[in-house]
Design brief:
Blueprint (H helix, E strand, L loop, with lengths): L2 H17 L6 H17 L11 H26 L5 E7 L5 H10 L6 E7 L3 H18 L2 E7 L11 E4 L2 H6 L3 H12 L2 E8 L1 E4 L2 E4 H7 L3 E2 L8 H10 L15 E8 L1
Parallel strand pairs: 1-2, 1-4, 2-3, 4-5
Antiparallel strand pairs: 5-9, 6-7, 8-9
Helix pairs in contact: 1-3, 1-5, 2-3, 3-4
Length: about 260
């Protein structure tokens, strides 16, 4: 499956839901490309990224979400064994990159159902992710059973916790230690896995996220490399609609962090 097609079509479904049209006009195309550039530079800012506008969510879902899903698929190849049911807690689900990526890794081995508790406070992200999950279920036959929640107290105990680019947001707000303690209480004992950038800008300056996470009992294993650049570029080049994005010149500069919440 081409994950760029999946997320782009899900985003266009969401666009129709919001505007009654799936058409990307010339004006909207220009705004989406502007938002893509803003996102690219925004990850280096000390302030959390704001996804409140429709154009910014669409720009993220059409390029960054499928790119991160391929990273999760590669991580799954290294860490996850075949199973028929994938059970997850998802922190800051957004458009669902981690769920789709892990499902795509497991699907050839007989995955039949995904059971996920998704913490996402933005209704707009929920609606977009719903469109992506709906398309994935229709195209693959994998049942997508998703429970949306607004508080981590609804997470299922002993269930693996995943998240994309949430550690950097927590680091910006000095909440990493608090997050760890809360997850131990809510889901422990359980494993947690997160992908994020190598560095994060905080009020005091630029810091390596691996150092900050390590101080809060996370394990950094980004040195393995991802080896997914070619898959990402092939899928991007072959996708049916190119709205925003680019070919990657190198492997994604993304790290993985894992922790046992106990």
């Amino acid at each position: 499956m081409n994950l760029f097609n999946l997320f782009i079509n899900g985003a266009l479904d969401h666009l129709k839901e919001e505007t009654d049209s799936r058409t990307v006009s010339t004006d909207l195309l220009a705004r989406l490309q502007e938002e893509h550039q803003a996102l690219s530079s925004g990850y280096a800012d000390a302030e959390p990224i704001n996804y409140q506008t429709l154009e910014r969510r669409l720009a993220y879902a059409m390029f960054y979400a499928p790119k991160h899903a391929y990273v999760w698929r590669e991580y799954g190849r290294q860490e996850w064994n075949d199973r028929q049911v994938l059970r997850l807690n998802s922190f800051g689900t957004g458009p669902g990159s981690e769920i789709i990526g892990l499902a795509e890794h497991l699907r050839p081995g007989g995955l039949r159902r995904v059971e996920a508790v998704c913490l996402e406070r933005e209704d707009s992200w929920r609606n977009l992710a719903h469109r992506v999950f709906q398309r994935y279920q229709e195209e693959t036959g994998v049942e997508m059973n998703v429970l949306w929640v607004t508080d981590s107290s609804y997470f299922r105990r002993n269930q693996h916790l995943v998240g994309s680019f949430v550690l950097s947001e927590l680091a910006r707000e000095s909440l990493l230690s608090q997050f760890r303690a809360e997850m131990v209480k809510r889901i422990g004992p359980a494993r947690g896995t997160f992908i994020d950038g190598t560095a994060v800008n905080v009020v005091t300056g630029k810091c390596l996220l691996s150092s900050m996470a390590g101080q809060n009992w996370y394990d950094h294993f980004g040195a393995r490399g991802w080896l997914c650049k070619d898959d990402i570029n092939t899928a991007w080049s072959a996708c049916n609609v190119k709205v925003c994005g680019h070919v990657l010149p190198a492997e994604p500069n993304i790290c993985a962090f894992k922790y046992n919440f106990r």
